[in-house]
Write a structure and sequence with these properties.
single chain, 219 residues, 11-stranded antiparallel sheet, two-stranded parallel ribbon, 1 helix
């Protein structure tokens, strides 16, 4: 296939079936390499981006002391999945009750020696994993399990903080949108989550996330 560089307006090419395809060049005859597509366009178009929703899930109460091995929620990538999960955004939100002001989401990055000895085999009831591209036939490999006991001492770190506008349903979430692939979950690994906060009045929290799935050459 020949490639012809032309300084012109954007050509709208639907397929690469032509013998010669016009590509964009600058008026100085250099190849135009500026990004035109939106940041998430290609992952969504390719059917490798997913959303985790939990509006129908039964939430879990926060703790008032630092956890050790108790993960309220575990995002687990099965050993046989063949893909790596790349987290872009993650959060926990209040699904019932009234939260105590000042909650924080803690995360624990779990190697195979840290995930539960009995691996999750299904997601918790009410967790919905949806392909961001409704035309795609790909299904998510992620499992989202509630109330899991981790092995060893994987450690915990703050990852998201409470929206200060309120402590009631619809106003209370802790969210981190700046991950953008900086956390990965390889096969047989996981990401533990826990909310630590003042007691509140029977608050229950559930997770939500945006992530990508594809095979990767991991080092």
């Amino acid at each position: 296939m020949l490639s012809e560089l032309i300084a012109r307006r954007f050509p709208q090419i639907k397929a690469f079936s032509e013998a010669t395809v016009a590509q964009r060049a600058t008026s100085l005859l250099s190849t135009a390499v500026a990004q035109v597509e939106g940041e998430g366009d290609e992952a969504t178009r390719g059917g490798i981006r997913f959303h985790m929703a939990s509006s129908a899930a039964t939430g879990i109460a926060p703790v008032q002391a630092l956890p050790t091995t108790a993960a309220q929620w575990l995002l687990y990538n099965p050993a046989a999945s063949g893909i790596t999960i790349w987290i872009d955004t993650i959060g926990m939100w209040l699904v019932s009750g009234t939260a105590g002001a000042g909650a924080t989401v803690l995360a624990s990055i779990c190697k195979p020696t840290n995930v539960p000895a009995t691996r999750p085999v299904a997601s918790a009831s009410g967790i919905v994993l949806t392909n961001a591209n409704p035309a795609s036939v790909r299904s998510s490999q992620l499992l989202v399990a509630a109330s899991q006991t981790l092995q060893g001492t994987p450690g915990w770190a703050p990852i998201a903080f409470m929206n200060p506008t309120g402590t009631v349903l619809g106003q209370t979430q802790m969210e981190q949108r700046d991950i953008r692939g900086k956390i990965s979950i390889p096969p047989d690994c996981g990401l533990g989550l826990a909310v630590i906060s003042p007691t509140g009045t029977t608050p229950l929290f559930a997770p939500y996330a945006t992530y990508r799935e594809y095979a990767a050459d991991l080092e």
